[in-house]
Design brief:
Shape: globular
Number of strands: 8
Structural class: alpha/beta
Helix content: 40-55%
Distance between the termini: 23 Å
Number of helices: 11
Largest sheet: 6 strands, mixed
Strand content: 5-15%
Length: 265
């Protein structure tokens, strides 16, 4: 695992930190790869029940490191083409650092402090839940560089804000503080210590049946924009898989016996 992203797992909670503090965790090509590698590794980690995503140093992520991207080719167009390479996946290279958290089978909680600009904002939008410090600075900032947001924002922002709000944020690049971002729908909670608050929630989630939590994320990610038949049939199918399993039985038994549950991963 690259030291550009650190991962520590304790009690079923993965504490993931962007670790390029001298650059406000700005997104270089190496940073893109390290974030994706961390997410893909956690997707296979059966012992992980929840993830907290944050940034070391004075901010969460300042967005694209424009200077480093110039090194991808002889021109900015060459750099852009490298970011747009797709391979055999639906998302391209630029979209994976944000989309990997949306696809993760367990809940991801982002903790935002300092700046979350441009690509940094979009990475946070890939999480299931977001905590922000009151003085955090959050912006869909690509318009500043004459660009559109293209790190899977079409799959994330639509679930958080109305279309008119999404357009205004994209057209203006306006910077919002934590409370303004909460009012707009970009973040879920405002907390003086967003990392501590995110870890507390992650530990609470990690104490629930991991089978039911994973199924719950699958249910909403699959059905939220699907037709009624797809959603209703998925509810029934996932429930059938859960009923009578060891973790489901343990959830019932521990409640009746008034003791903490002991779930298996």
């Amino acid at each position: 695992m690259s030291d550009l992203v650190t991962v520590e797992v304790d009690g079923g909670v993965a504490d993931v930190r962007l670790n390029r503090p001298e650059k406000y965790n700005a997104l270089s090509p190496e940073m893109f790869k390290a974030i994706v590698a961390a997410g893909e590794r956690l997707a296979e980690a059966k012992e992980v029940r929840a993830v907290v995503l944050s940034g070391n140093g004075r901010g969460f992520c300042a967005g694209l490191d424009m200077a480093s991207m110039q090194g991808l080719g002889d021109s900015s167009r060459d750099a852009g083409n490298a970011l747009l390479s797709r391979g055999d996946q639906v998302e391209n290279f630029a979209q994976r650092p944000a989309y990997v958290w949306k696809k993760l089978p367990v809940p991801t909680i982002a903790a935002l402090h300092g700046v979350a600009y441009g690509g940094g904002c979009q990475i946070a939008l890939g999480a299931d839940i977001r905590f922000a410090a009151p003085d955090a600075k959050i912006s869909v900032m690509e318009i500043k560089w004459g660009l559109i947001p293209d790190m899977s924002i079409t799959q994330t922002l639509r679930d958080l804000v109305p279309l008119d709000v999404a357009k205004e944020l994209t057209f203006t690049g306006r910077v919002l503080n934590g409370e303004q971002a909460r009012q707009a729908g970009l973040v879920t909670h405002v907390a003086d210590d967003p990392h501590a608050a995110a870890m507390e929630l992650a530990r609470e989630i990690a104490g629930k049946s991991p089978d039911a939590v994973r199924a719950g994320k699958d249910l909403f990610e699959t059905s939220w924009h699907a037709d009624a038949r797809t959603g209703l049939e998925l509810e029934a199918a996932l429930q059938r898989k859960l009923i009578g399993t060891p973790n489901q039985v343990e959830a019932v038994r521990s409640n009746f016996e008034k003791r903490p549950p002991e779930f298996n991963d």
